C-alpha cells in the first residue's frame, strides 16, 4: 500500500508525472497522456518541447488508430487546430 507521501508525489512531482506521461504514450494509453498533460502545470520549461511533441504525436496516433490508416498533412493540421497545446506545457511562445 502506498503511503500518502508517495501518493502525493505521484500526483504532483514533475519528474514522476513526466515519466508517467511518457510511459503511457509508449503503451498507447493516450487518454492518460492527455489527462496528465492537461491537468498538471509543469514548472520546468526545458521539458515543454518534449511534452508538446508527445501531446501532438499522441493525437496523431490516436486518430490513425481510429481511421486505420496514416494521416496526411491536412489531417494533421486539423488535429493541431482541434487539439491546441494545453497551457500546462505551453507558455504562449
TrEMBL record:
Glycosyltransferase in keyword set: no
Annotated GO MF terms: DNA-binding transcription factor activity, RNA polymerase II-specific; RNA polymerase II cis-regulatory region sequence-specific DNA binding
Gene Ontology cellular component annotations, sorted alphabetically: nucleus; transcription regulator complex
Keywords: DNA-binding, Homeobox, Nucleus
Domain Homeobox protein SIX1 N-terminal SD: 8-87
Pfam families the UniProt entry points to: SIX1_SD (PF16878)
The UniProt record lists the keyword Ligase: no
Protein name: Sine oculis homeobox homolog 3/6 protein
UniProt superkingdom: Eukaryota
Matches recorded under PANTHER family: HOMEOBOX PROTEIN SIX, SIX HOMEOBOX 4
Amino acid at each position: 500500500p502506498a503511503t500518502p507521501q508517495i501518493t502525493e508525489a505521484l500526483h504532483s512531482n514533475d519528474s514522476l508525472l513526466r515519466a508517467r506521461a511518457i510511459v503511457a504514450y509508449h503503451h498507447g494509453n493516450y487518454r492518460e497522456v492527455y489527462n496528465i498533460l492537461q491537468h498538471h502545470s509543469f514548472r520546468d520549461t526545458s521539458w515543454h518541447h518534449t511534452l508538446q511533441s508527445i501531446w501532438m504525436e499522441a493525437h496523431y496516433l490516436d486518430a490513425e488508430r481510429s481511421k486505420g490508416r496514416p494521416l496526411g498533412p491536412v489531417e494533421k493540421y486539423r488535429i493541431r487546430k482541434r487539439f491546441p497545446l494545453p497551457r500546462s506545457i505551453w507558455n504562449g511562445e
